[in-house]
Amino acid sequence: xxxxxxxxxxxxxxxxxxxxxxxxxxxxxxxxxxxxxxxxxxxxxxxxxxxxxxxxxxxxxxxxxxxxxxxxxxxxxxxxxxxxxxxxxxxxxxxxxxxxxxxxxxxxxxxxxxxxxxxxxxxxxxxxxxxxxxxxxxxxxxxxxxxxxxxxxxxxxxxxxxxxxxxxxxxxxxxxxxxxxxxxxxxxxxxxxxxxxxxxxxxxxxxxxxxxxxxxxxxxxxxxxxxxxxxxxxxxxxxxxxxxxxxxxxxxxxxxxxxxxxxxxxxxxxxxxxxxxxxxxxxxxxxxxxxxxxxxxxxxxxxxxxxxxxxxxxxxxxxxxxxxxxxxxxxxxxxxxxxxxxxxxxxxxxxxxxxxxxxxxxxxxxxxxxxxxxxxxxxxxxxxxxxxxxxxxxxxxxxxxxxxxxxxxxxxxxxxxxxxxxxxxxxxxxxxxxxxxxxxxxxxxxxxxxxxxxxxxxxxxxxxxxxxxxxxxxxxxxxxxxxxxxxxxxxxxxxxxxxxxxxxxxxxxxxxxxxxxxxxxxxxxxxxxxxxxxxxxxxxxxxxxxxxxxxxxxxxxxxxxxxxxxxxxxxxxxxxxxxxxxxxxxxxxxxxxxxxxxxxxxxxxxxxxxxxxxxxxxxxxxxxxxxxxxxxxxxxxxxxxxxxxxxxxxxxxxxxxxxxxxxxxxxxxxxxxxxxxxxxxxxxxxxxxxxxxxxxxxxxxxxxxxxxxxxxxxxxxxxxxxxxxxxxxxxxxxxxxxxxxxxxxxxxxxxxxxxxxxxxxxxxxxxxxxxxxxxxxxxxxxxxxxxxxxxxxxxxxxxxxxxxxxxxxxxxxxxxxxxxxxxxxxxxxxxxxxxxxxxxxxxxxxxxxxxxxxxxxxxxxxxxxxxxxxxxxxxxxxxxxxxxxxxxxxxxxxxxxxxxxxxxxxxxxxxxxxxxxxxxxxxxxxxxxxxxxxxxxxxxxxxxxxxxxxxxxxxxxxxxxxxxxxxxxxxxxxxxxxxxxxxxxxxxxxxxxxxxxxxxxxxxxxxxxxxxxxxxxxxxxxxxxxxxxxxxxxxxxxxxxxxxxxxxxxxxxxxxxxxxxxxxxxxxxxxxxxxxxxxxxxxxxxxxxxx
Length: 1091
Prior knowledge:
The chain contains 36 helices and 40 strands. By secondary structure, the protein is an alpha/beta fold. A seven-stranded antiparallel β-sheet has the order 16-15-12-13-14-17-18, with helices on both faces. A seven-stranded antiparallel β-sheet has the order 33-32-29-30-31-34-35, with helices on both faces. Strands 5-4-3-6-7 form a five-stranded parallel β-sheet, with helices on both faces. Strand 39 (1027-1030), helix 34 (1040-1050) and strand 40 (1055-1056) form a beta-alpha-beta unit.
């Protein structure tokens, strides 16, 4: 029914739809991160507001969207066509909304449509129909559509075989860009400069594409890249949410580029032309009821424009655009998907205008990617069309200079801004030829090489010619350096007096200089600069992000700091608590910590406090406009946090939920009188300080592996001889497994000391006895100073030595005795009380020969908190927040440990396929980017689900290649026999084959790489190997085994690198062969828990 109101036709929401299924994006991987938790959460809210029954499927437990309160029915199941079909058959939804789940959601919708599943069960795709998705994602259909409307695309061809790729290469000049169809983050993409590379990269691209198709197109490297976020409703109304301009030129994936919003270097006529093209494109693609991201290339020499691609869904850039403007794109797109017009959807920020408007920005936003190449030391850090960053930070300023410098200091890489912080390579006399090379071939450090080039006297034109960065941005960077030179003229003397003129200090702050930078430049200290500028009346003001540049009095704005405007902050007189977020995602500190911060905000609201969030990550739910009562989009540094504390005067601050970033601020903040809620910084120090911690364990009669610190290679070797090899070595000043390694003899230790660390009295090396064959156990608990609630005891599936973030784990434990579990409970209670923990605590144990060793205690949130919370139905982070506010566990009704009847498995997901040549062997340094959860009534089924969810295509038949270290040869015999019982054949190299034959296992022997042909790589290339079990120890990993692992990773062959993981894999395969998997909602599992 169409209602008339005056001259306006009002279209009601779709009342023919009752039940809608949302597909999530799965685990955090490079190219698809936590921005889809933000978008999925908004979609759930938007649909529930309209009275729809919401069904959600996602495999990632570390998300807010999979909390049981978000959707009516939540399936934490593998995101595969098979499992989606089971869920659809069980739920019978009316519609499927795939556009909030990234590339994963789109691909699944296409596969379900092609397989006839949606037609069979009468399910309609909304947001973007199958034809729209195909028109955008299928490279040939997209090219044809653009040509029909006269929009230029780079000269190109479609290849489904290497032969077709070579034919295209003969027609188009090199270099060539290869873009596999239906992939994300440039996965499988590459740049080919010659015929040999084209042949090699075509094979990889075709393998990477789910439909075996790759677009090979003319290179437009060096062109300007501009993106537009566009929304279109069912009545053909279109809005441009914002423009975004990449500082880096075409040739670098947009996810790896520094991006600014709005675009800074376009003329009015250029901008209007690109807007018109974007509207024309979205109409041709026919996104009618949702959003799209349009990527355009602009030739800086003549203004020619080509369209690069269109994403007919909420994308990574959508999250940035949403947070940059205040326009909740995912929320609005969901409303449009169910039939609303733009003018009928309320602007959630202003609370009084519609969404049929284009946001006005009176500020500049910078997005800067976060890389973790240090975790992959063999990786080449060059940037190209395949995305490699694992996270990003967003900053806001009145000018580009201000937002740019704020963004750099938000990255958590030890930089205080655009140099001038003691970390510049000029301190090491960087050669001009090296600087030029780093401008030509961009790396993660490229932007700092721009600074070095300017300081070496290179002109803006010279730098532009090498880097292709627009001269406007280079001019701004040069102006930052010129301000630095002015500040150098006021270095303090022996009397330590600061003489900076008011005008110069204000100019520096307006240009984004941090107090730490200014202190370094003039030879002072950060807090001294802070006090000096405050004495001059120079302080941070706070401006609104309100979508309308102050035209309306907004209901839900958020804030950024600046030194170039009047203060617009609205300070309440309510009791209030500040939560420090986790900053940009990176390996070791990911979405799990944002999950905890969000739950802290929910708890504060329930307890009547004003919740104030400080974070710089645009991808997260914590930076949604409606998660907290108030949001500051700011760097997590002492200076920036103190600015907010002075303005808000909170009743306390929560630092234990955002990972290491806020924890590192606990002591500096406490030193200036800030009240830290929960476990005291002194208790945190007691857990992290090796000597204090060892003394505590002695008092409690608890056991830790023998260890000591050395300040030189000689001392480290002496300790290792005394303790006995193997030993675990790491820098004692580094957390999170960085540079941690197991060494098996003195030769390996010498190599480690030469290549991994530089030991000194300031930087000692910890040498600890490594417990071979131990079982590692993780425990998460909440304590209130008196009582302790154990949330979960998790047994690692991989043996000791694998970082806890990389190991699969299971709860309840599968192999620990009741007596051992009880002793672990007692040890946990004793440690929580001794440390006076108030809030969350994670303890890592190792169990060997019935002896329980304490490895580590972290009185803070851990990355397993979301997993356990989903498994036991108790939101541990929310409970911990209420404890920190003064509630007791007894008052909260939580005095007994929760016991579950189901089995939950957490599995890690790795980015090895993004880093060719990096060894896929696991160890004590964390390398995973995300996680999935398998949940069922038995371990075998739960583990199998976890592997499917992690993208491991476990084989059901074929040949298994086995090559294991001597220590594992006895254990692998049973595994090989079990595989044969399941119908597999066994292939092994000489040593392993001999042991298997001696134990009556039929095996085909194959050459090692240096022994002759055909060798194992030949078998892999011929498709004769379906699963690899390969364990190794020490630096022997660099030989044949490493080449085998690299080939497996790059070609999607399942690879298991621990013997315990192999045993679990065989168990999972056995369950897959039974084909008796059931799907059940998390709410159903929870209903069976007895409290």
